[in-house]
């Protein structure tokens, strides 16, 4: 038996153990993103456990037995999230004139087990992730659906004891986080997850006036890996293992205004700060305007391990407007980056308003703008079908040594279809393509087909 097979069997055995204990995988701070649209700031999902009717004369009514058990057992859920992902990217041509391609097709997903609460306080969670190759030539590696070498993998990414009491939460060990810079980045087969220890005050109601959280993130499992490494190593530091303390707050002066801020102190290598503010103005049932501004700074700290002892301080700011009318939405955004160094996002999706399917438009000195249009086809009687198109232009970028870089543009198309009723409820099909043009490189063509299907076992 080879080492990879042994490791897979070990992961499965550990997963079975955790399944016998149960699961709750939300992070302390925000179930979506401290800068996103979620309103929970880490409050667990409130999905109801509803029991279907059973025959009156069933010899053993397991549903009745389950409904009369403790909440820890009764409210347990087990879900399979099945995923198929095809990814193809052509990055122009190499020096010999041959196309540079990345192609993979993978099958996998996750099994997530989530308990109710013991004494209305304690729960524990586990989620097993896997990605296995269906197709992937060795010479077209790099799509990030599989491990390097187009190898499949399996890993327990979530193993999360959690304590909730009167609006407060303590979340431990392996878990997801959904912050700016530190997040699942679930745009491949499996997400980033983290080994961390966090405390948060979650507030009350759907839109609590004040929330905060703080903690320490020790390690990251990146989206195409089965190994947890230190946060410093995940950022590219090779001469020391360092973690990342964090703290964040959210304030709602009114139901229509949300202000958030979070700071991650990568010990001895880089500090990440992010803040944004959102305001929703509703003119009528058909018309609304969502306005947002953002600011972020990345600064070397301590021993400057990431920058080789060189002090670095670089910031970005952005503004975005989204006008909704019935089933249409028109978006526009501008982001401006300081010169000095390209902003990085080693732990998840980049939070800039102009981050797109392929590019983040995060180069030093870059000024980028975006226009976009989306539509929900329920307006013409097709429930579950939606689409959007974006155009982004980035100008004025420079290298870290202040040399001018070519301007860059990207055009994105995205189509989603979700089945909301019947046997195939929770089936989701997504088509995505991004076309990036850069004068010195040519056109990068990115194409993706993703199928997701959730099966609720319990």
Note the topology.
Blueprint: H1 3-19, H2 62-67, H3 71-74, E1 77-93, E2 99-114, E3 122-135, E4 153-165, E5 168-175, E6 193-201, E7 210-221, E8 228-230, H4 231-235, E9 244-254, E10 257-266, E11 270-282, E12 287-299, E13 313-325, E14 328-337, E15 367-376, E16 385-395, E17 408-418, E18 427-438, E19 442-456
Antiparallel strand pairs: 1-2, 1-19, 2-3, 3-4, 4-5, 5-6, 6-7, 7-8, 7-9, 9-10, 10-11, 11-12, 12-13, 13-14, 14-15, 15-16, 16-17, 17-18, 18-19
Overall form: globular
User: What share of the residues does DSSP label as strand, in percent?
Assistant: over 45%
Order of helices and strands: HHHEEEEEEEEHEEEEEEEEEEE
Output the number of helix runs: 4
* Average of the residue pLDDT scores: 87
Low-pLDDT parts are: 1-58
Counted beta strands: 19
What's the N-to-C terminus distance? 34 Å
Whole-angstrom Rg: 23 Å
Helix content: under 10%
SSE-based structural type: mainly beta
Note the main sheet: 18 strands, antiparallel, barrel
What does this structure look like?
- With 458 residues, the chain is mainly beta.
- The protein has helices at 3-19, 62-67, 71-74, 231-235; strands at residues 77-93, 99-114, 122-135, 153-165, 168-175, 193-201, 210-221, 228-230, 244-254, 257-266, 270-282, 287-299, 313-325, 328-337, 367-376, 385-395, 408-418, 427-438, 442-456.
- A hairpin with a 6-residue loop joins strand 7 (210-221) and strand 8.
- The protein has 4 helices and 19 strands.
- The chain has an 18-stranded antiparallel beta barrel.
- It starts with a helix and ends with a strand.
């Amino acid at each position: 038996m080879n080492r990879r097979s042994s490791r897979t069997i070990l992961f499965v055995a550990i997963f079975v153990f955790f399944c016998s204990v149960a699961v709750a995988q939300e992070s302390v701070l925000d179930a979506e993103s401290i800068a996103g649209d979620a309103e929970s700031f880490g409050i667990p999902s409130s999905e109801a456990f509803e029991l279907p009717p059973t025959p009156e004369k069933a010899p053993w009514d397991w549903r009745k037995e389950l409904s009369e058990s403790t909440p820890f057992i009764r409210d347990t859920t087990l879900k399979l999230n099945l995923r198929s992902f095809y990814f193809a990217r052509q990055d122009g041509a190499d020096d010999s004139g041959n196309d540079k391609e990345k192609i993979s097709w993978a099958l996998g997903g996750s099994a997530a087990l989530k308990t109710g609460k013991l004494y209305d306080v304690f729960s524990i969670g586990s989620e097993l992730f896997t990605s296995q190759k269906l197709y992937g030539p060795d010479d077209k590696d790099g799509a990030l659906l599989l491990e390097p070498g187009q190898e499949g993998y399996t890993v327990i990414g979530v193993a999360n004891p959690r304590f909730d009491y009167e609006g407060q939460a303590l979340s431990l060990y392996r878990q997801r986080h959904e912050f700016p810079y530190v997040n699942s980045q679930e745009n491949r087969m499996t997400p980033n997850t983290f080994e961390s220890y966090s405390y948060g005050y979650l507030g009350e109601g759907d839109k609590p006036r004040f929330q905060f959280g703080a903690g320490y993130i020790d390690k990251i499992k990146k989206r195409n890996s089965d190994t947890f490494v230190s946060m410093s190593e995940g950022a590219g530091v090779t001469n020391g293992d360092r973690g990342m303390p964090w703290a964040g707050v959210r304030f709602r002066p009114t139901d229509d205004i949300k202000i958030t801020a979070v700071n991650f102190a990568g010990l001895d290598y880089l500090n990440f700060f992010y803040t944004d503010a959102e305001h929703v103005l509703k003119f009528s049932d058909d018309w609304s305007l969502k306005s947002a501004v953002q600011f972020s700074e990345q600064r070397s700290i301590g021993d400057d391990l990431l920058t080789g002892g060189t002090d670095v301080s670089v910031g970005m700011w952005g503004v975005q407007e989204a006008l909704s009318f019935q089933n249409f939405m028109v978006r526009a955004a501008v982001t401006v980056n300081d010169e000095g160094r390209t902003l990085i996002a080693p732990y998840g999706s980049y939070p800039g308003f102009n981050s797109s399917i392929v590019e983040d438009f995060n180069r030093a000195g870059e000024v980028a703008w975006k226009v976009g249009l989306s539509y929900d086809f329920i307006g013409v009687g097709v429930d579950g079908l939606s689409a959007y198109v974006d155009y982004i232009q980035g100008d004025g970028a420079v290298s870290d040594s202040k040399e001018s870089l070519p301007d860059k543009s990207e055009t994105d198309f995205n189509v989603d279809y979700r089945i909301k009723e019947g046997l195939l409820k929770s089936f989701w099909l997504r088509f995505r393509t991004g076309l990036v043009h850069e004068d010195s490189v040519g056109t990068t063509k990115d194409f993706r087909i993703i199928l997701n299907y959730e099966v609720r076992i319990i």
